[in-house]
Structures are given as C-alpha cells and as structure tokens.
C-alpha cells in the first residue's frame, strides 16, 4: 500500500490556479487543482486541501535530459497518497491532455467505500481542472492576438493620418490659389498652421473616426477646387473677345463665304 507523505509547507506565492467543481458521492468529496507553475508539493500545501483524507498528485515537467533533436525529455510522476492507483490515474490525464504542470486531486473520505467509481471521480476532476486552464489559455491567446492586431492597425492608421494631413494642406493651398479671397474653413481637418495632434497617443477607435473625417475633408476640398476651376473657365470665356481672322472677316462672314458658290463653276 502506498505510504502517505508528510505535509508540505504552504507556498509563499499564489499564481493562477485552476480548480474543478466539487464532486460528491455517498459522503465522499473530490476536487482537483491544476497549475502549470506550482509543484505537486506546493499544491498539496494549499489551504483548500488541509483536511483532505488523500491528496493524490501527478506531474509532468521538462527534465534536464534532451532528445537527439535537442528537445527536452518530459519527466512524469505521481503519488497515490494512500489512494492506491489514484496517482497513476491522474498522471494519465496529464499525458492524455498533453499538458505540463502538476495536478492534485483531493478526496475527503465519507465513510462509505465507493469501489472503482472513485477513479472516475478522480479522473473527471483532474480533467476538468486542466480543461479550465486550457480555456483560460485560449482566451489569453485570443486577447493577445487582438491586441497585436489592433497595435498594427493603429500604427498603420497613424501613418495614414499624417499623410492625409499633408494632402489636405497641399489641397487647401491649391484651393487658396484658385479663389480670392481664400475660403473660410469648412469641415474639420488639418488646417495650415494648426498644431498636428500626436496620433500615437490616441485610441484606435478615435483614429478610425479621424480617418473618416480626413477623407471627407479631402473630398470637400477637391469639390471646391473643381468648382473654382469651373468658375475660372466661365470668367475666362466671358472676358475673352472673339478672335478676328487676319483677313478682317468675322466668323459669320467666313461661314457665308464658304457656302457661296461661284456661278462660273461648272461651266
């Protein structure tokens, strides 16, 4: 029969722990805690397990040994803590779920022998604790990817906004040349002489709104330039006198002359 180990001292730090639900069966209670960081001994010393009848442990960690391709060899082990074959059951959970770390399943004996079903409770509690860590890791990775994606988008938007500001400045200068006096500012956007904001300090949502505002500003300035050019063309047409041919005839006279047919032709 497996011998129970002496109690370990309480851990001096408390990293994230992943706990299963409490399972009860005929007055016996089972619960598991998994940690990718703490050792089995540290998990056993948690206050939650202080009065447990059994603290069944298993671990799976990289060892100092290496494979031929330099990968670390994983060292696995278990401790029944008086619950024969319980440690091996928990160890198989770690191996089957392909995770590193340690897990302890605590059992409080209720006075009734459960038989083989106790191994189902041990296995299910250990699996649930590990699964909750995996779910937490998936969420963490998803958040990390989101943050990295937003940072890239923010970096690109900052560059785009600086380029938009330069374009607006150039277009406003062109519009000022075509209109006298220069039109009053319409629509928000970069203005000549205005202080350029520090876009890098702004949140992504604000940058996205500013990009839309800058695009609208550019569209407005382009329309104003087009209107100014049309006005210039009309003014030019109204002030330019009709050209008189070198022979002194007017266009109407030229047209009339072109349509005149000499009666002598065809003779």
Automatic annotation (TrEMBL):
| PANTHER family per UniProt | IMPACT FAMILY MEMBER C14C8.09C, IMPACT-RELATED
In this chain, the stretch annotated as Disordered covers 229-267
Which ranges does the record mark as transmembrane?
A: none
- Which SUPFAM superfamilies does the record match to this protein? Ribosomal protein S5 domain 2-like
UniProt biased composition (Basic and acidic residues) = 253-267
Residues of the Impact N-terminal domain: 26-129
State the name under which the record lists this protein. Impact N-terminal domain-containing protein
- According to the record, the signal peptide region is none
Family, as annotated:
Belongs to the IMPACT family.
Q: What is the lineage of its organism?
A: Eukaryota, Fungi, Dikarya, Ascomycota, Pezizomycotina
């Amino acid at each position: 029969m497996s011998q129970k180990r002496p109690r370990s001292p309480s851990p001096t730090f408390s990293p994230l722990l992943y706990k299963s639900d409490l399972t009860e069966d005929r007055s016996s209670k089972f619960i598991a805690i998994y940690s990718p960081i703490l050792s089995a001994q540290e998990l056993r010393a948690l206050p939650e397990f202080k009065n447990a009848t059994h603290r069944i442990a298993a671990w799976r960690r990289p060892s100092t040994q290496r494979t031929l391709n330099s990968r670390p060899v994983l060292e696995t082990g278990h401790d029944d803590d008086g619950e024969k074959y319980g440690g091996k059951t928990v160890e198989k959970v770690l191996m089957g779920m392909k995770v590193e770390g340690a897990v302890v399943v605590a059992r409080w004996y209720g006075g009734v022998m459960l038989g083989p079903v106790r191994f189902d409770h041990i296995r299910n509690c250990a699996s649930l604790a590990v699964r909750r860590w995996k779910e937490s890791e998936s969420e963490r990775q998803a958040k990390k990817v989101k943050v990295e994606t937003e940072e890239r988008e923010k970096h690109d938007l900052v560059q785009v906004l600086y380029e938009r500001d330069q374009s607006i400045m150039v277009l406003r200068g062109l519009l000022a040349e075509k209109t006298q006096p220069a039109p009053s500012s319409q629509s928000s956007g970069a203005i000549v002489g205005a202080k350029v904001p520090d876009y890098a300090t702004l949140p992504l949502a604000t940058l996205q709104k500013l990009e839309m505002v800058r695009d609208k500003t550019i569209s407005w300035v382009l329309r104003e330039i087009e209107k100014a050019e049309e006005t210039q063309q009309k003014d030019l047409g109204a002030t330019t006198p009709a050209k008189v041919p070198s022979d002194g005839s007017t266009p109407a006279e030229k047209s009339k002359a072109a349509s005149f047919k000499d009666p002598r032709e065809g003779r």
